Structures are given as structure tokens and as C-alpha cells.
From TrEMBL:
<dbReference type="GO" id="GO:0072344">
    <property type="term" value="P:rescue of stalled ribosome"/>
</dbReference>
<dbReference type="Pfam" id="PF01195">
    <property type="entry name" value="Pept_tRNA_hydro"/>
</dbReference>
<dbReference type="GO" id="GO:0006515">
    <property type="term" value="P:protein quality control for misfolded or incompletely synthesized proteins"/>
</dbReference>
<keyword id="KW-0820">tRNA-binding</keyword>
<feature type="binding site">
    <location>
        <position position="69"/>
    </location>
    <ligand>
        <name>tRNA</name>
    </ligand>
</feature>
<keyword id="KW-0963">Cytoplasm</keyword>
<comment type="function">
    <text>Catalyzes the release of premature peptidyl moieties from peptidyl-tRNA molecules trapped in stalled 50S ribosomal subunits, and thus maintains levels of free tRNAs and 50S ribosomes.</text>
</comment>
<feature type="binding site">
    <location>
        <position position="17"/>
    </location>
    <ligand>
        <name>tRNA</name>
    </ligand>
</feature>
<keyword id="KW-0378">Hydrolase</keyword>
<dbReference type="InterPro" id="IPR001328">
    <property type="entry name" value="Pept_tRNA_hydro"/>
</dbReference>
<dbReference type="GO" id="GO:0000049">
    <property type="term" value="F:tRNA binding"/>
</dbReference>
<dbReference type="InterPro" id="IPR036416">
    <property type="entry name" value="Pept_tRNA_hydro_sf"/>
</dbReference>
<feature type="site" description="Stabilizes the basic form of H active site to accept a proton">
    <location>
        <position position="96"/>
    </location>
</feature>
<feature type="active site" description="Proton acceptor">
    <location>
        <position position="22"/>
    </location>
</feature>
<feature type="binding site">
    <location>
        <position position="71"/>
    </location>
    <ligand>
        <name>tRNA</name>
    </ligand>
</feature>
<dbReference type="InterPro" id="IPR018171">
    <property type="entry name" value="Pept_tRNA_hydro_CS"/>
</dbReference>
<comment type="similarity">
    <text>Belongs to the PTH family.</text>
</comment>
Amino acid sequence: MATTWIVLGLGNPGPQYEKTRHNVGQLVIDELATRRQEKLRTHKANARVAESWVRVGGDRFVLAKPNTFMNVSGGPAAALAAFYGVTPDHVIVVHDELDIPFDTIKLKVGGGHGGHNGVRDVAKALGTPEFPRVRVGIGRPPGRMDAADWVLDPFGATERSALPSLVSDAADAVEELIEDGLVAAQQRHHAPR
């Protein structure tokens, strides 16, 4: 029997944030929707969603981008989980990660939020931190630059050239996590590139 997953891409709404490091999770949702020729539509959970499958006849997933700002992503996450009858272990959160070098992807289930306010709010709203995460590395800011400024800046020129490949790899990681499980996906994506 097919299972339903929610794949939640964290970010901030509005065109001024679209190309920023903090919105890489939403870029991954866009990539997954494009692969399936799906358009995101407004949902009453204060998010834009598209329903699809990893592969026809396989598990169903709901691609979702909250309409809220990053720090209050939990409301839409919990509302979508309730609407679709999905438990937290089937809510995959895709987000930027300062503590991982740029162009690196790491997957895990549970753990702390590492200072990421979007992840913190999702954990609070779901009532547990035990949900799968696809963490897309954006690296630490250079010099004494504040982390908050770094995540809200657009990707630099060198990063932009590698970004399509990074986003595609993160989308692959989501699909593999659903199809093959956490360990198999980790083995593929945690190996040195």
C-alpha cells in the first residue's frame, strides 16, 4: 500500500528572498515539481502544494512551500500533516545548513535544530524533532559577517554556477530517502564527492 509523505521546503516568501541561501529548501521543491511537471497550488494550510509520486504506483508525496516566513514554518507543517494524516516520521524537511560546506548534502532523522529557527519551529509544531531532514550545505559566512546576513544574501557568482547541480542532488536525495530509506540515501550522499 502506498504511503504519503510531505516534503516541506523551508524558506521565506516573496521575490526578494527567492535567490537567497535561506531559500534553498524551496528551490529543491521547485526542482521536484518541475521533474513531475506539477504546479504548486494554494492550500488552506497556508502553503503552496503539489501532489505527486516518486514514481507512478509508488509512494505519494506532497511537495510543500509554506507561505509564512522561515521562523514560523511549523504552522503550515503541522496543518499539512493533519490534513493528509501524516505522522512526523513522514514529514521530510529540506533546509539550508550553515554547518555543512556549500555543495554538500547530509540526511538525518531527529537531533537538534542547530540554531535553525525554521527547523526549531517545525519541531515545536509537530511536537517532536524526530522527522527526516535533507540538509543542504550553504557554509559559514566569511570573516566576521553575521550568519543572519549571510543566509539572507543571494548566492555568490561561484555558488550560482554550482547551484543547479546542488539543487538537483538534493532533489535526488529526497526521492532516494522515500524510495530506498535513510541509510541507503545517506550512503550515496555522504560519500566524498
